Amino acid sequence: MRSNTGPSNIAIAAIVVGTLTGCVVGPDYKTPDLAVPRHWGSKTSRKIQPPQLSQWWKRLRDPTLDALIEEAVAGNLDVATAKAKIREARATYREQRGALLPTVEGTASATRNRTAASDGTPASVYNEYEPGFDASWELDLFGGNKRAAEAAKYGVDAAEEDLRDTLVTLVGDVASYYVQAREYQALRDLAQRTGVSQRRTAELTQAEFKAGTATAIDAAKAAGEAASTEADIPTYETSYAQAVHKLAVLLGKPPAALDERLKTGGAIPRPKLDVSTGIPADILLSRPDVRSAERQLAQYTAKIGQAEADRYPSVSLTGSISSSATSISDLGKKSTIGWSFGPSLTVPIFQGGQLKAAVDVAKAQRDQYYIAYQSAVLTAMQDVEDGIVSLTQERLKNAKLVVSAASYRKAADLSHELNQAGAVDYLNVLDADRSLYSAESSLIQSTANIASNYISLNKALGGGWDGQVDVSAPVVVDADTGPHLAKAK
Question: Which of 37, 309, 335, 351 has the most C-beta neighbours closer than 10 Å?
Fold first, then answer.
């Protein structure tokens, strides 16, 4: 009588194997629940709106800046590096996933054999051909490979967030250096205009001195004031050139590539709208560096389970099948066929404490990334708080400087009129011109600071490039990678 328990046993074995291979050891990751304030410290009475971070730089309304940012995203080398790291992380994940599957290898051998008997029988010479297949599968009973794959997947997430963080930094840096370039152009132009006016005045004062209507002190002070203002021009030219060179390098171009394009000058970008800052909890999702830190924490939490699994027994299923014949045409017909199949068990008995130490290392690394995540959140909140205060206070300062510059302009005009009428001496004129130049310089710098603080606040909130970025294309395309003779170099 036939037994019908065979299929049942196979089914039961399959269920048991499937259940066991679904087990894991080590902690399961949970996103930390960090306590953050309900509102920013510099809260205002206006209604809180979520941050409007999509293409925030376009609210500066500068087409040249818009074009530079697009070119930077396409050509920046840090972005290219971040793309390559994503490709690396994805390949690592595929590699780890592959460890969960069986491996199959093909083998083949061909030998020429000679045997001779000791009784003098003529030697026998024959060929032997042996093809075969070997297969193995680690059952991963305690989830070491699954934890490794899980860690690799979190690594992919972290690499993608790192790319977004690189883009946040890039967009902010391009905008900042562009504002600096326009600021130094404006300061240079002011120094040139003021220097020309002061030089003309110095020449007139020198003529008056020769005619006896002005003193030598007046002539010397006028010449010195003009020279002092003219001395500012090389400083501004240097700072302008450095900003443009940094900007070009951010675009992945030679330092002097933008010289002709930006030399015509332009206004300092002026943001018109307030920045919506939302609430502190928003940065947990909007800041890619915070998200990357959280993904790295998840990655190193999974690595604890990977290390813990090495302390448990491992079971592998191995099998092989081979055929042997003296002629290739006899394979599968007159050949001998052999096979083997069975499990193998490996039990760690004594490793000198190495396996436990590896778990402790993984836990310590997890703790470091937990602290790094906390630090990233605190730093992000500090960046936003600093940005809010800086932008608010700079706008108040700018309003005062507008009044200051207008007042000094009026004072300078009156000083020139009264000096020509003989009512005040020339020292009053020099003092009024000097104060006007200083006030206008401060106003230009404050206007640039408003734009820079606006940029910094949007950057602090996590505003970056939200368009499509292709990460699949390699930078270096290899040719002739198949088997070939090595070429001497």
Answer: 309
Whole-model pTM? 0.88
- DSSP symbols for 357-406: HHHHHHHHHHHHHHHHHHHHHHHHHHHHHHHHHHHHHHHHHHHHHHHHHH
User: Residue 270: how many CB atoms within 10 A of its CB?
Assistant: 14
Helix (H) / strand (E) containing 319: strand 314-324
Q: Are 196 and 226 in contact (CB under 8 A)?
A: no
Q: Residue 405: is it exposed, middle or buried by C-beta count within 10 angstroms (0-12/13-18/19+)?
A: buried
More confident residue, 23 or 486: 23
* Phi, psi torsion values for 273, nearest 5 degrees: -100, 150
Q: Degrees (nearest 5) of the Cα angle 42, 278, 293?
A: 100
162 confidence band (pLDDT: 50, 70, 90): very high
The residue ranking higher by pLDDT, 114 or 363, is 363
The structure tokens listed for 258 are: 């933008």
Contact 229, 479 (CB under 8 A): no
What would the mean pLDDT of 331-348 be, rounded to a whole number? 84
Q: How far apart are CA 84 and CA 472, in angstroms?
A: 8
pLDDT higher than 80, residue 195? yes
Per-residue exposure over 294-309, b if at least 16 CB sit within 10 Å of its own CB, e if not: bbbbbbbbbbbbbbbb
Average pLDDT for 421-445: 90
Q: Which strand (E) or helix (H) includes residue 130?
A: strand 124-138
Check if the beta carbon of residue 327 is closer than 8 Å to that of residue 129: yes
How many angstroms separate the CA atoms of 375 and 382, rounded?
10
255, two tokens: 């330092």
Of residues 429 and 64, the one with the higher pLDDT is 64
Of 434, 445, 444, the C-alpha closest to 195 is: 434
Q: How many CA atoms lie within 13 A of 47 on its CB side?
A: 1
- 48-98 pLDDT per residue, tens: 788 889 999 999 999 999 999 999 999 999 999 999 999 999 999 999 999
CA distance 339 to 343: 14
Q: What is the C-alpha to C-alpha distance for residues 241 and 264, in angstroms, rounded to an integer?
A: 13
